[in-house]
Design brief:
- The complex is a heterodimer of chains A (222) and B (79).
- Chain A contains five helices and eleven strands.
- Chain A has helices at 14-24, 67-77, 87-94, 151-159, 209-221, and strands spanning 3-7, 29-33, 44-47, 81-85, 101-103, 111-119, 135-142, 146-148, 163-167, 178-182, 188-191.
- In chain A, the strands form two sheets. Chain A has a nine-stranded mixed β-sheet with strand order 2-1-3-4-11-10-9-6-7, with helices on both faces. In chain A, strands 5-8 form a two-stranded antiparallel sheet.
- Chain A is globular.
- Chain B has 79 residues and is α+β, with helices and mostly antiparallel strands.
- Chain B has helices spanning 16-27, 51-66, and strands at 2-9, 40-45, 72-78.
- The chains are: A alpha/beta (222), B alpha+beta (79).
- The interface between A and B is medium-sized, with 21 and 12 residues.
Chain lengths: 222, 79
């Protein structure tokens, strides 16, 4: 499966994602500079974490207008897989590829720690190798990770089984303990935690592998 | 011409920054404060032109980039 990792000025988890996909999973992986208007033959796009454009104005607000994001939107519309991690999740929300927004953590602090996530559904290309209720230990590292959407949107996410992971202990004030959601077509996934930082035993947890293994399985079954 | 734009978090959105500042003001002895909310103030220099056209353009700029309608409201004046 061919992976493409978008690089914005200020991305800083792009190399972690590259390492995991190319070296840990042995998948053909390449970077896509934010000025590239085409993704080429990429099957799955990773919008990585970081501080794109210095988080100026709002997190993700400027990155969403880059040429690469237009290509990501077209890729998503065609049913291609997209995963946005941390700043990537914020960008996907700003780009309206996912509903809602990420705002300042309730406690105002930047939080960098391992948290427990519960897999809420296995009905997605990103969680299909998990069990419902399975708990994953994956780090978060964000100042603006408090998920917000109007009650009607939250209801819709619940009704359509689109909340893929929730925090066991809500660290940031996110509505309904939401840590990650998918779009209506279930091919676009955004989450605040960093599975790419939890894919090797040397880093203290391998639980993040589940997300990437699910993507690979989805490709085989596609 | 200059546009002055105010972007505020919606009433339904948590504003922990405003809450914290409110508590700080109270602990400094400022009485009677009911609520503090913190937003953004943006100034944009504009080439002079038809007010209605400028307003329309600014509306577009505010809803497309300067504010996120999911979490924020905006208002502006042009002088």
């Amino acid at each position: 499966m061919k992976f493409g990792i978008i690089q914005f000025p200020g991305s800083n988890c792009d190399q972690d994602a590259y390492h995991v996909l190319a070296n840990v999973f042995g998948q053909p992986t390449r970077y896509v500079w934010h000025k590239e208007a085409s993704l080429g033959d990429v099957d799955c796009v990773v919008v990585p974490g970081g501080f794109s454009y210095g988080d100026y104005l709002r997190t993700g607000a400027i990155a969403r207008f880059s040429p690469a994001m237009k290509a990501v939107a077209a890729h998503a519309k065609d049913g291609g897989l997209v995963i946005g991690i941390c700043n990537g999740f914020q960008i996907l929300c700003e780009a309206h590829l996912l509903p809602g927004a990420l705002i300042r953590n309730k406690g105002l602090k930047f939080i960098c720690e391992h948290v427990d996530l519960r897999v809420e559904t296995t009905n997605s290309p990103f969680t299909n190798t998990g069990r419902r209720g399975q708990v994953l230990r994956i780090p978060i590292a964000h100042g603006e990770g408090c998920y917000f959407a109007e009650p009607s949107v939250i209801q819709q996410l619940q009704d359509e089984d689109r909340i893929l992971v929730r925090y066991v202990n809500n660290p940031n004030g996110s509505v309904d303990n939401i840590a990650g959601i998918c779009n209506e077509g279930r091919n676009v996934f955004g989450l605040m935690p960093h599975p790419e930082r939890a894919s090797e035993t040397a880093l203290g947890s391998e639980d993040g592998r589940l997300i990437f293994e699910s993507i690979l399985r989805a490709a085989v079954n596609a | 011409m200059k546009a002055k734009i105010i972007v505020m978090p919606k009433k339904t959105v948590l504003d922990p920054q405003g809450k914290t500042v409110q508590h700080a003001l109270e602990s400094l002895g400022f009485k009677g404060i009911q609520e503090v909310r913190i937003g953004k103030f943006i100034e944009v220099e504009l080439k002079a032109g038809n007010q209605a056209t400028l307003k329309k353009k600014l509306d577009e700029a505010c809803s497309k980039l300067l504010s996120n309608p999911v979490i924020e409201d905006y208002e502006f004046s042009i002088k």
